[in-house]
Each structure stands twice: as C-alpha cells, then as structure tokens.
Design a protein that fits this description.
The protein is mainly α and 360 residues long. It folds into 2 domains: 20-107, DNA polymerase, domain 1 (Orthogonal Bundle); 118-360, Intergrase catalytic core (hpI Integrase, Chain A, Orthogonal Bundle). It has 15 helices and 5 strands. The chain has helices spanning 20-30, 35-51, 62-74, 80-97, 104-107, 123-131, 135-147, 151-155, 189-208, 220-223, 258-271, 281-293, 298-305, 310-320, 355-358, and strands at 162-163, 168-171, 180-183, 238-244, 251-255. The strands form 2 sheets. Strands 1-2-3 form a 3-stranded antiparallel beta sheet. The chain has a two-stranded antiparallel ribbon with strand order 4-5. The longest helix is centred in the middle third of the chain and has 20 residues, at 189-208. The protein is globular and about 70 Å long.
Length: 360
C-alpha cells in the first residue's frame, strides 16, 4: 500500500538493485507498466547516458536533457511522437528512479503532436488483401478487421473470452487497462472453431510434457496457481514454438508474435497492388471508417474501439468527407465538363443504426 506525505506524493519502496538500468526496470515493474514500455524507457535512458559519454544522470540536469532532446530533434530529425517518448522516459527516470524533484522537469516543453488523418483501405482493397492471406495470420487479420481490435488485443486473446453463444468477444486489459465487448463476426465462426482445435492440440502437448502454463496477468498466478495450465486461459493464437519469458526467465508457450502478421500484411499489400502505407493498425482504421460509412453512430463506434473520448473517434468522420469538405470544385461545374453526381450514396450511407444491430 502507498503511504502519502504532506504533499500527497506516494512513497515508493526502496530499490533493491544497484545498477541504474536495473533500478529503472525494477520501478517500471513495480508500477505495472507493460514490457513494451519497459524496453522503450530502457532504450532511451541508455541512449541518453551514452550520448553524454557515460555520465551518471544524477550529475546532470536541465541543460543536458535539453541538449540531448535538441540533438534528437535537429540532428536525428525524430518525429514529435518519438521526441515525446524520449522525454517521458527521462522524466520517469528522474522522478521515479532518482527521485529528483527539480523545477526544470516541468519546464521542458513537449512538442505538439501532429494531427494526421489515418490511412484507410476501401472495402475492395481490404477484400483483395485478405484474399491473399491464409492460415493463422489470415484469420487473425480478418478478426482484427472484423472487430476493430488492436494487434496485441487480438494476440492476447484467451479461450475463455470467445463466446460463440452470445456471438461476442471480450477484450481484456485494452489500452488504458479497460475491458470491452466486441462482436464475433459470424463469417469467422467456423474458422475460429478450427483455430481453437489447433490451439488445444498444442495445449495438450504442453500438459503432457509438464511444461509451465501460459503467462497470467498481474498476481493471478499466485492466487490461482493451477489456472495458467488450464485450457480456458490458453491463447487462441499460440506460438508454434516455446520461448523464454524475458522477465521471469520461465520457458513456456507465448502467444503468436506480432512480427508474423506484420510481415504477412506487407507481402499481401504488395501482391494486391495497393499503393498506400498499410500497417496492421490500418485494419482498425478501416473497421471504424466502414462502420461510419454504413450509418452506425459515432458513440457506437467509440464503444467498440474502446476510446475514452469521442474526440478520438471523430477523426474518422474527417476521412468520410468528400475531398475539400464536400465542396464542389469549380472545374466540375465549368461549361463542357461532364456532370458529376453528388450524393450521399457515394459512401453507401444508410440511416443511423445503434449498437444492437451490430450484434444481430
């Protein structure tokens, strides 16, 4: 439990590690940050120390931090999001690990994030791309597009969270630590049953070999020692090979690695002759845009995507606009030019529908 001082700041337990980067990892794990965040923060802190010729951060301050960030922005030409990521890592180091409360920590400005419209595929482009993807990665790609899940949400899907009777999937520990419910696409019902059969075969092999169970969230492994070995907690998309957990050192079966789907999508996009910067997240963008094109209201799409603020979801309404915000170009109204049909049917807009229709 936290204890609070007069300024209501939580008092952390003393660090056990002696090396700085180990202390950083220790504090990150104590605060339950993700492994991805841990790797990112360690990378930037190590880079900061090496750039300053191995000087200890405790002996540096605002000038050194600003000099490093200036180098990143001016010499390395990093994006504003990367700049903010590096700054967040350094602020975490000084506040949470070194526990140095200096005024300059809050004086360092954060670059403003650029507002970019997401890349969205048309329905025909999605169909062409998915038609070229087979096996587990093909099913995973279809599931991400059909539900709007993020990549890691799909990879971390457990058997117990797929409900065929209610035709729903429960997304556990999404962004911000929130759970939500999405639809189970009926067109994937048979394929998911077959995938679960393949997953169960690997689970049975692991149990016969007396291998440790799958990774469990938070402290559930201690609370329910045998749960990790049960079928209900197994991955829907398990890795075909075993791997060593980077934190615990335990050799067990992990879920499918994200690089497999990323590579498969890159190949499919090239073969489908799609000339857009497509990533796995493009499937989520396309899901949201196509729902709005189909007439579903913005609040419904917000709930399915798991956005805390509807403003985040509103970006997809900009994608829906006809070029120039719907303004007709004067070239299209010039004498002698062919008449252009201006209609909402261009996007297949239908009357608004509620969330109940999505689950039908």
């Amino acid at each position: 439990m936290y204890r609070f001082n007069k300024k209501a700041k939580p008092v952390r337990p003393p660090l056990q590690s002696t090396r700085l980067l180990d202390q950083l990892r220790e504090r990150i794990r104590y605060l339950h940050y993700s492994l991805r965040t841990e790797k990112t923060y360690v990378y930037w802190v190590r880079s900061f120390i090496h750039w300053h010729k191995l000087r200890h951060p405790a002996g540096m301050g605002k000038p050194e931090v600003e000099a490093y960030l200036t180098w990143l922005a001016c010499q390395r030409s990093v994006s504003p999001s990367t700049h903010r990521q590096a700054l967040s890592a350094l602020l975490f180091l000084y506040k949470e690990v070194l526990e140095i409360e200096l005024p300059w920590l809050d004086e360092i400005g954060r670059p403003r994030a650029r507002e970019r419209l997401p890349t969205v595929l048309s329905r025909e482009e999605v169909e062409r791309m998915l038609a070229l993807m087979e096996g587990e990665v093909g099913l995973l790609a279809r599931l991400l597009y059909g539900t709007g899940m993020r990549l890691m949400e799909g990879l971390r899907l457990r058997v117990k969270d797929v409900d065929f009777d209610r035709r729903s999937i429960i997304v556990r520990e999404g962004k911000g630590g929130k759970d939500r419910v999405v639809m189970l696409p009926q067109s994937l019902r048979q394929a998911l049953h077959e995938q679960l059969a393949r997953s169960r075969a690997l689970w049975a092999e692991d149990r016969a070999a007396h291998l440790p169970g799958v990774e469990m969230p938070d402290a559930l492994a201690r609370k329910y020692p045998r749960a990790a070995e049960t079928w209900t907690w197994h991955w829907v998309f398990p890795s075909p090979t075993l791997s060593t957990d980077p934190r615990s050192g335990i050799r067990r079966r992990h879920h499918l690695y994200e690089e497999r789907l990323q590579r498969a999508i890159k190949k499919a996009v090239a073969r489908a002759d799609i000339h857009k910067p497509v990533s796995v997240h493009t499937l989520r963008h396309s899901f949201a845009t196509h729902l709005l094109q189909g007439g579903y209201d913005i609040r419904t799409v917000q709930e399915l995507l798991g956005h805390s603020d509807v403003k985040t979801t509103m970006i997809y309404t900009h994608v829906l606009k006809v070029g120039g915000g719907g303004v007709i170009s004067p070239l299209d109204t010039a004498p002698g030019m062919p008449r252009v049909e201006q209609s909402g049917a261009l996007y297949g807009i239908t009357p608004q529908a509620g969330i109940s229709q999505i689950y039908q």
